[in-house]
Amino acid sequence: MPKLLRRTTSTRPAARPALGLPKLTKRDKQRQTSRILVKLSGEFLGNPKDKISANNPLNFFISQIKDIKKNTQLEIAVVIGAGNIVRGLNAQKLGLDRYTSDYMGMIGTLINALHLKNILRQNSIKSSIMSALEIKNICPLFYKERALKFLERGDVVILAGGTGNPYFSTDTAAALRAVELNVDILLKATKVDGVYDCDPMINPKAKKFKQLTYQQVLEKNLKVMDLTAISLCKENNIPIIVCDIKNPHSIKKILKGEKVGTLITNSKIKS
């Protein structure tokens, strides 16, 4: 079974030991389950030119989810982006105002959510879509208690529509849902194996960070997630792990407590 254990709920979360997880309680021992939220960018469902495609990065993710769901009781929520369809900031270059382009992006996440649900179904993985935007014929509106019921019955819960408000990114939506659903870890899936001091795709000498504090991310202006998302995780003590989703068994390794990618928490961890 995974080593992660459910976070305890409190108005002001306590500092986490070791990997950023709470101490074992009697209730945890009885339940033996955990919950994670994965932030999946739209690019994993295809690039801006191809829009939606059956590309390899997404296949790596699906194969990991299928294996985990088959062998563990891990509860998984996914917040999905829409960068493969439309980016709010880029759309402004076409003359669209930010308010309109952000709503276009939110609708794009619903398109990606339907695509992801279809692929999960093809792989015999149960899933449910919930959205911050109400579209009755497609999916129900996000409601915390309903989402928790879906998770507890074993569904992969796909969360679309961002926060439901313009001017907020899907990274912020991921941080918000992570807090609302009381997850153990927010897993930021990327195409590189962690956080670097500069773009490793451009600079082969880029330095990788094994671990960081939220404050270091803010001070170094590292482009991991936006300021609002990092601040939300910092305030609510949600550990973030940034890793390459194409790395086989990366999620399973994280569950076992192995060091994968870059860990971001409220305090430095002794090596």
Summarize it.
By secondary structure, this protein is of the alpha/beta class. Helices cover 34% and strands 16% of the residues. Strand 1, helix 2 and strand 2 form a beta-alpha-beta unit.
Which features does this protein show?
271 residues, alpha/beta, Carbamate kinase, 8-stranded mixed beta sheet, two-stranded antiparallel sheet, 9 helices, 34% helix, globular
Total number of distinct structural domains: 1
In CATH, the architecture is: 3-Layer(aba) Sandwich
- CATH names the topology as Carbamate kinase
- Note the main sheet: 8 strands, mixed
- Helix count? 9
Strand content bin: 15-25%
Q: Residue ranges: pLDDT <50 for 5 or more in a row? A: 8-33
CATH top level assignment: Alpha Beta
The end-to-end span amounts to 25 Å
Mean pLDDT: 83
Taking strands numbered 1, 2, ... along the chain, how are they ordered across the largest sheet? 3-4-2-1-5-9-10-8
Please identify which CATH superfamily we are dealing with: Acetylglutamate kinase-like
Helix content: 25-40%
Question: What gross morphology would you assign?
Answer: globular
The Rg value, from CA coordinates, equals: 18 Å
How many E-type strands?
A: 10
